[in-house]
């Protein structure tokens, strides 16, 4: 079958080839009446015309492709919201996202960057599954946008969650409910886990403003899954009764799920006997456990949108400092007032 050409659309619409070109490319549309534009698009659809994207890119020096290099986002359901946000913006502006998931392999990452720059993508986003400070890989275009990570050297547009503020929001929720013995079930000690330090700083800030002296025994660490959360919470339950927490702020929702298990094994009810706040608002966990978990949401979708808007040049950015995206509180049913002491 012969390829349908732009001249065929012009004949079908009764206009010049130049008019068809301007309408379908979006150039000069302010000089062409809406009725004519509609007629051209209807004619193109009716005869099955598809623009030659290769020829168009040679003319405009644009491929309308945005490269996105990530570590493991594509295989992580809750972080995949970043991809959804970026893709929605790209689609709205007529662009295609080309995703390369490197599995955090340095050699694959180098190959991905070389391949995408070789394909002359219009812009690039460099993303990580969780908040990290990273060294900018060699070969990244100068206007690359960093998503859920920030370059140690600075000088690049970047967006990360405001994890310190998130720690503040989580701890204030528990203080506002009347709690004074509040534990922080944290991630393992690891300099790369930036969020652990920032959330702990937020936790300490709220204790200070509430006049609560931090108890080092209420800051425990564990593997960042349900088993780690359960083991860390059992450490807290082993404390003398007068030092045990009435509320727990967990580094993430999976650890909070483990805290639920530890509480139930002790015959405790949530939130009657113990209040718990998580972090992430992870799908299939936070809203599904019993009772549904009050948690701080990571703004994955919003960060993805911001990064793509900056990459496309439709939003300004500050290269000297990353944007700190708000992490909102999602209130459900796992927080209540502290239990009344026995005998009262």
TrEMBL record:
Origin: domain of life: Bacteria
One term of GO molecular function: transcription cis-regulatory region binding
Keyword DNA-binding: yes
Family matches, as Gene3D superfamilies: 3.40.50.2300, lambda repressor-like DNA-binding domains
Keywords carried by this UniProt record: DNA-binding, Repressor, Transcription, Transcription regulation
SMART domains in the cross-refs: HTH_LACI
Pfam families in UniProt: LacI (PF00356), Peripla_BP_3 (PF13377)
Domain HTH lacI-type: 4-60
PANTHER family: HTH-TYPE TRANSCRIPTIONAL REPRESSOR PURR-RELATED, LACI-RELATED TRANSCRIPTIONAL REPRESSOR
Protein name: LacI family transcriptional regulator
Organism: Streptomyces nymphaeiformis
